[in-house]
Amino acid sequence: MNNVILMGRLTRDPELNRSSGGKAFVRFNIAINRIGEGTDFINCVAWEKTAKTISDYFKKGQRILVQGSIRTGSYEKNGQTIYTTDVLVNRFEFIESSGNSANNGNYDDEYQSSYKSKKSKKSFKKQKEIFEDDDSDVDEDIYYDKNSNNFADEDDDDDEDEDQFPF
Protein backbone atom coordinates (compact mmCIF):
# COMPACT_ATOMS: atom_id res chain seq x y z
CA MET A 1 0.00 0.00 0.00
CA ASN A 2 1.35 3.41 -0.96
CA ASN A 3 -0.66 6.04 0.91
CA VAL A 4 0.54 9.17 2.66
CA ILE A 5 -1.25 11.91 4.59
CA LEU A 6 0.67 15.08 5.37
CA MET A 7 -0.15 18.45 6.90
CA GLY A 8 2.06 21.47 6.55
CA ARG A 9 2.36 25.03 5.26
CA LEU A 10 2.84 26.01 1.64
CA THR A 11 6.32 27.42 1.01
CA ARG A 12 5.17 29.54 -1.97
CA ASP A 13 2.01 30.38 -3.91
CA PRO A 14 1.00 27.38 -6.04
CA GLU A 15 1.08 28.23 -9.77
CA LEU A 16 -1.05 26.36 -12.28
CA ASN A 17 0.88 24.99 -15.29
CA ARG A 18 0.06 22.87 -18.34
CA SER A 19 1.80 19.68 -19.39
CA SER A 20 2.90 19.16 -23.01
CA GLY A 21 -0.35 17.20 -23.42
CA GLY A 22 -2.40 20.15 -22.14
CA LYS A 23 -3.27 18.76 -18.69
CA ALA A 24 -3.37 21.20 -15.78
CA PHE A 25 -0.94 20.55 -12.93
CA VAL A 26 0.56 22.36 -9.97
CA ARG A 27 3.80 21.66 -8.14
CA PHE A 28 4.18 22.92 -4.59
CA ASN A 29 6.17 22.26 -1.44
CA ILE A 30 4.87 21.97 2.07
CA ALA A 31 6.97 22.59 5.17
CA ILE A 32 6.35 20.15 7.99
CA ASN A 33 7.86 20.74 11.43
CA ARG A 34 9.46 17.67 12.94
CA ILE A 35 8.91 16.72 16.54
CA GLY A 36 11.86 18.32 18.25
CA GLU A 37 14.01 20.31 15.84
CA GLY A 38 14.00 20.64 12.10
CA THR A 39 11.62 20.96 9.20
CA ASP A 40 10.96 18.68 6.24
CA PHE A 41 10.13 20.19 2.86
CA ILE A 42 7.96 17.82 0.84
CA ASN A 43 7.48 18.14 -2.93
CA CYS A 44 3.88 17.66 -4.06
CA VAL A 45 2.17 17.57 -7.44
CA ALA A 46 -1.56 17.67 -8.20
CA TRP A 47 -3.38 17.33 -11.52
CA GLU A 48 -6.50 18.66 -13.26
CA LYS A 49 -9.36 19.79 -10.94
CA THR A 50 -7.33 19.25 -7.79
CA ALA A 51 -4.51 21.37 -9.23
CA LYS A 52 -6.88 24.14 -10.30
CA THR A 53 -8.54 24.33 -6.88
CA ILE A 54 -5.23 24.36 -5.00
CA SER A 55 -3.82 27.10 -7.25
CA ASP A 56 -7.00 29.19 -6.94
CA TYR A 57 -7.57 28.98 -3.19
CA PHE A 58 -4.23 28.45 -1.46
CA LYS A 59 -1.43 30.94 -0.84
CA LYS A 60 2.05 30.84 0.65
CA GLY A 61 1.96 30.16 4.39
CA GLN A 62 -1.48 28.52 4.45
CA ARG A 63 -1.82 25.13 6.08
CA ILE A 64 -2.97 22.29 3.87
CA LEU A 65 -3.61 18.61 4.46
CA VAL A 66 -2.82 16.39 1.48
CA GLN A 67 -3.44 12.72 0.84
CA GLY A 68 -1.81 10.84 -1.98
CA SER A 69 0.92 8.42 -2.90
CA ILE A 70 4.68 8.68 -3.11
CA ARG A 71 6.10 8.69 -6.64
CA THR A 72 9.74 8.47 -7.54
CA GLY A 73 11.29 9.44 -10.83
CA SER A 74 14.46 10.65 -12.48
CA TYR A 75 15.68 12.95 -15.23
CA GLU A 76 18.96 13.97 -16.81
CA LYS A 77 20.50 17.38 -16.10
CA ASN A 78 23.95 18.34 -17.37
CA GLY A 79 24.82 14.67 -17.87
CA GLN A 80 23.82 13.69 -14.34
CA THR A 81 20.81 11.66 -13.30
CA ILE A 82 18.63 13.55 -10.83
CA TYR A 83 16.29 11.42 -8.71
CA THR A 84 13.00 12.85 -7.47
CA THR A 85 10.44 11.94 -4.84
CA ASP A 86 7.02 13.61 -4.91
CA VAL A 87 3.64 13.14 -3.30
CA LEU A 88 1.03 12.70 -6.02
CA VAL A 89 -1.91 14.48 -4.39
CA ASN A 90 -5.34 12.97 -4.99
CA ARG A 91 -7.17 14.64 -2.09
CA PHE A 92 -6.68 17.72 0.07
CA GLU A 93 -8.36 19.59 2.92
CA PHE A 94 -8.58 23.25 3.88
CA ILE A 95 -7.17 23.39 7.43
CA GLU A 96 -7.72 27.02 8.38
CA SER A 97 -9.83 29.97 7.38
CA SER A 98 -8.16 32.75 5.45
CA GLY A 99 -7.88 34.95 8.56
CA ASN A 100 -5.82 32.31 10.36
CA SER A 101 -3.10 31.73 7.76
CA ALA A 102 0.42 32.99 8.25
CA ASN A 103 0.03 35.57 5.47
CA ASN A 104 -3.75 36.00 5.53
CA GLY A 105 -4.13 34.29 2.15
CA ASN A 106 -7.72 34.43 1.00
CA TYR A 107 -9.97 31.77 -0.38
CA ASP A 108 -13.73 31.68 -0.52
CA ASP A 109 -15.22 30.06 2.61
CA GLU A 110 -18.42 29.41 0.65
CA TYR A 111 -16.45 27.42 -1.93
CA GLN A 112 -14.79 25.43 0.84
CA SER A 113 -18.18 24.53 2.30
CA SER A 114 -19.64 23.48 -1.04
CA TYR A 115 -16.51 21.48 -1.92
CA LYS A 116 -16.61 19.59 1.37
CA SER A 117 -20.37 19.19 1.12
CA LYS A 118 -20.21 17.58 -2.34
CA LYS A 119 -17.36 15.29 -1.32
CA SER A 120 -18.94 14.29 1.98
CA LYS A 121 -22.30 13.47 0.35
CA LYS A 122 -20.58 11.11 -2.10
CA SER A 123 -18.47 9.63 0.68
CA PHE A 124 -21.50 9.19 2.94
CA LYS A 125 -23.40 7.34 0.20
CA LYS A 126 -20.51 4.92 -0.24
CA GLN A 127 -20.14 4.43 3.51
CA LYS A 128 -23.88 3.95 3.90
CA GLU A 129 -23.83 1.19 1.27
CA ILE A 130 -20.92 -0.50 3.00
CA PHE A 131 -22.50 -0.42 6.46
CA GLU A 132 -26.05 -1.29 5.47
CA ASP A 133 -25.24 -4.98 5.23
CA ASP A 134 -27.50 -7.64 6.67
CA ASP A 135 -26.57 -8.19 10.33
CA SER A 136 -27.89 -11.76 10.41
CA ASP A 137 -24.39 -13.25 10.52
CA VAL A 138 -23.25 -11.14 13.50
CA ASP A 139 -22.28 -13.21 16.53
CA GLU A 140 -24.21 -11.66 19.40
CA ASP A 141 -22.22 -13.66 21.95
CA ILE A 142 -19.23 -11.36 21.45
CA TYR A 143 -18.93 -8.42 23.81
CA TYR A 144 -16.34 -5.82 24.76
CA ASP A 145 -14.77 -6.45 28.16
CA LYS A 146 -13.91 -2.99 29.57
CA ASN A 147 -11.78 -4.51 32.34
CA SER A 148 -9.41 -6.38 30.06
CA ASN A 149 -9.74 -3.93 27.15
CA ASN A 150 -10.50 -6.83 24.78
CA PHE A 151 -13.31 -8.34 22.79
CA ALA A 152 -14.28 -11.80 24.01
CA ASP A 153 -16.89 -14.53 23.67
CA GLU A 154 -19.24 -14.84 26.64
CA ASP A 155 -18.16 -18.45 27.09
CA ASP A 156 -14.47 -17.60 26.61
CA ASP A 157 -12.11 -19.49 28.91
CA ASP A 158 -8.91 -17.56 29.63
CA ASP A 159 -6.97 -20.76 30.45
CA GLU A 160 -7.27 -21.99 26.85
CA ASP A 161 -5.70 -18.79 25.52
CA GLU A 162 -2.69 -19.13 27.83
CA ASP A 163 -1.97 -22.64 26.51
CA GLN A 164 -2.14 -21.54 22.88
CA PHE A 165 -0.16 -18.31 23.30
CA PRO A 166 2.75 -18.74 25.72
CA PHE A 167 3.86 -15.09 25.57
Question: Low-confidence parts, pLDDT < 50 over ≥5 residues?
Answer: 102-115, 123-156, 159-167
Write down the oligomeric state: single chain
Which range best describes the helical content: under 10%, 10-25%, 25-40%, 40-55%, 55-70% or over 70%? Answer: 10-25%
**Architecture of the largest domain in CATH?**
Beta Barrel
Number of strands: 8
Shape summary: globular
Looking across the biggest beta sheet, what order are the strands in?
1-3-4-6-5
CATH superfamily of the largest domain: Nucleic acid-binding proteins
Strand content: 35-45%
What's the story with the biggest beta sheet? 5 strands, mixed, barrel
Structure notes:
It comes from Leptotrichia rugosa. The structure is a single chain. With 167 residues, the chain is of the alpha+beta class. It has 2 domains: 4-108, OB fold (Dihydrolipoamide Acetyltransferase, E2P), CATH 2.40.50.140; 136-164, no CATH class. Helices cover 24% and strands 41% of the residues. It has helices spanning 48-57, 109-131, 158-164, and strands spanning 4-10, 15-18, 24-33, 39-47, 63-77, 80-94, 142-145, 150-153. The longest helix is centred in the C-terminal third of the chain and has 23 residues, at 109-131. The model is unreliable at 102-115, 123-156 and 159-167 (pLDDT under 50).
Descriptive labels:
single chain; 167 residues; alpha+beta; OB fold (Dihydrolipoamide Acetyltransferase, E2P); five-stranded mixed β-barrel; two-stranded antiparallel sheet; 8 strands; globular
